[in-house]
Each structure stands twice: as C-alpha cells, then as structure tokens.
Amino acid sequence: MIELSAQEKAWVSLIFEKLDKKLGRSAVNLKDTFPFIAENGKYNDMLKEDVTWWTNGFFGGMMWLMYNETHKEEYKIAAERQEELLDRAFEVYDGLHHDVGFMWGLTAKANYALTGNKKSRVRALHAANFLSARANIRGKYIKAWPNKDYTIVDSLMNIPLLYWASREIKDDRYTYVALMHADSVLKHHLRPDGSVVHIAVHNTQKDEVTETLAGQGYRVGSAWSRGQSWAVYGFALSHIHTGEKRYLDAAIKAADYFIKEAAKSDYKVLTDFCQPKDVDYIDTSAAVCAACGIIEICKATGDKSYLDAALKILHALECDLDFSEENESILQNCMISYGHGKQLHHIYADFFLCEAILKLKNSDFLIW
Ligand code: GLY
Fold first, then answer.
1. Which of helix, strand or coil describes residue 39?
2. What is the residue with the minimal CA distance to atom 2 of ligand 1?
3. Using CA atoms, how far apart are residues 38 and 279, in angstroms rounded to an integer?
C-alpha cells in the first residue's frame, strides 16, 4: 500500500485525469495501428513497418491498464484489437525474438487476467513456449536475438511471462528457464557498483561471458540509463514472481545506483550516466520505467525513501509532459540509444508513465 501526502495524492489524481482524457482519444484513433515513435506529434505505424517489432504490445498493454482502472469500453475495444493484430506476428514467426514477453505479456496475458478470455491464454502460452525455446541450457541463458549469443539486460522484463506460464499449466518447466536466465543476468550484467552491462556475449558451451558491449549506451563499461531501469524493474518483478530475496537485493542495488546518479542532475535522467559532461541527452523513458521498479522496492521493503525517490524522478518529468490534443504522444524526450542522438517520444514511455501513476493510485493490477 502506497501512502501519499494530500498534496501528492492531488497531483497523482490530476495527472491521471489528464492521462484518461488523452488516452481515451488515442484508444479510438490509434487502435488499428502499432504506435512506436512520435515525431512532431504524429506516431509512425509499426504494423506497416514490422509486425514483429518488440514494442508492439505497449499500446495494447496501456489500454488494459486504463481499462482496469476506468472500466471504459473504448479501452477494452482498443486492447482487444491490438491483440488481434498481433496474431500476424505469430504468422510471420521469423524475426521474432526474446521480447515476446513485452508483446504478448502486456496484451494476451493481460486480457486473460482481466477477462478470462481463453483464446488470449493460449496466445500467451504460445509466446511463453517460444521464449523458453530460446534457452541455451549449456550456457545457462536465454538468447536475445537470432544468430547471436548475446544476452541483454532488457530480457528481465520478458521472463515474467515464463513465471506466469508455469503457474498457469502447473508445471515448473518455464520457471526453471526463467530462474536460470535471471541468475545469469545477475551474475554477468550487474556490476559490483550496481550499474549494469547492456549486452553480454556468451560462450555457448558453458556459463561464461567472453565480452561485454556498449549496446545502446555510450561506451563499453558505461551505464545506459534505460538498461539500468530494465534491471531495477526487471529484478523487482522476478522477486515478486518468485519470492527469491537475491532478486530484491539485485533490484535494490541497481536502484541505489540509478537514484544516486539521477540525483546528480536534479533527477533529470541522462541517457547514459557516464556520458560526457558537455552532452545533455536525457531519457524520460528510463525515468518512468525505473520509477515503477523503485515503487515496487518501496512496497517490498517498506522503506519510504524509495517512494520519495520515485516521486522526485516523476516530478522532474513535468516539463516533458504534453497533454495537448495536437500531439498524439504524452511523455517527450526519450532516446532510442546514445548513438541515435535524437530526443523523441517512444510508446513505452507513456506505458510506464501510466503504470507508475496507477501504482501511486494503489491499483492492484500487476500487468507483468
Ligand atoms: N532494446 C530495447 C530498448 O530500447 O530498450
């Protein structure tokens, strides 16, 4: 249970009201597309560009979050439409990757959780099967992409689908794969100072990493902030699903690093915490995702300093919010990667903003 001051409660209600107004319009206008990047206020459509794209579940997931809170029919209609469109990715198959948890966990699994839809349950189980089949049992990890023996820290957000699938079919086989992978990420991605490696290159024959890569961060050995946020929230989710204390400890370690670094720039989250001093790139998507994980840490530990930190991170985003009708997106100034070098909006920023606000409203629906 999150307890807020009267002032914070009023702020959360105000932001939620604005989210509902804007997303109610999006539910109607965007339901037949997979929105990803908004530039000059207009979204592109990944349904036309790449149906297997990793972000194609976020808009549907956000619709379920809003439906659960408001019970407004337009959100349900949009979420169901998104799930139906996503079937085309199963049909394509080639090009699918470890991010199927983002895709079907936030759509089909959410639908089943909220409505009991049996067809959605089967879709989510197919996705879990696909994800667990990517496991390299010798190397003890789940492979991120085809043809490369890489793990990426982002993967922590996909494995909740496996914990769920095991519970659903009453068989531990998916959980074994998820635990194996979470332990690999803990061992190979979380550094002693709490920062995380984005990409680890694995020996395919044994539990060994041969090299780490900068991935979407600034350089090898740096701390890409969205990767850091995947670790904060991802480990927190593994703790919620398994009760294993080592994952909570890992989430806390990653969160403490995140909060310490964010505090250095007044809680404006830089794209990479190690970027050169004269570069002012920020990533608001990292901020909102981390805030979700930090709120979960507060709930798990009862330590209110984590709630204070999450609120500071969220308040620092106020000037990045656009609730106008002209702009289809809300939270501005995300960054795909340090190398991309462009501040844009990405759909998952709005998803995690919505999720963070709902956590502060004490919504009891965990979509992961
Ligand atoms: N690799 C997924 C991301 O951009 O965070």
1. strand
2. 154
3. 23
Q: What is the DSSP string of 116-155?
A: --HHHHHHHHHHHHHHHTTEETTTTEE-SSTT--EEEGGG
Strands of the 37-39 sheet, one edge to the other = 42-43, 37-39, 345-346
Q: List beta partners, residue 38.
A: 43, 345
User: Which atom of ligand 1 approaches the CA of 54 most closely?
Assistant: 2
Structure tokens at 168: 């659903």
Q: How far apart are CA 180 and CA 182, in angstroms?
A: 6
User: Which of 55, 226, 233, 344 to mutate for ligand 1's pocket (most ligand atoms within 8 Å of CB)?
Assistant: 226
The residue whose CA is least distant from atom 1 of ligand 1 is 154
User: Number of C-alpha atoms within 13 angstroms, CB side, residue 237?
Assistant: 27
Ligand 1 pocket: which of 53, 150, 199, 216 to mutate (most atoms <8 Å of CB)? Answer: 216
Write out the chain's pLDDT in tens, 368 residues: 899 999 999 999 999 999 999 999 999 999 999 999 998 899 999 999 999 999 999 999 999 999 999 999 999 999 999 999 999 999 999 889 999 999 999 999 999 999 999 999 999 999 999 999 999 999 999 999 888 899 999 999 999 999 999 999 999 999 999 999 999 999 999 999 999 999 999 999 999 999 999 999 999 999 999 999 999 999 999 999 999 999 999 999 999 999 999 999 999 999 999 999 999 999 999 999 999 999 999 999 999 999 999 999 999 999 999 999 999 999 999 999 999 999 999 999 999 999 999 999 999 899 99
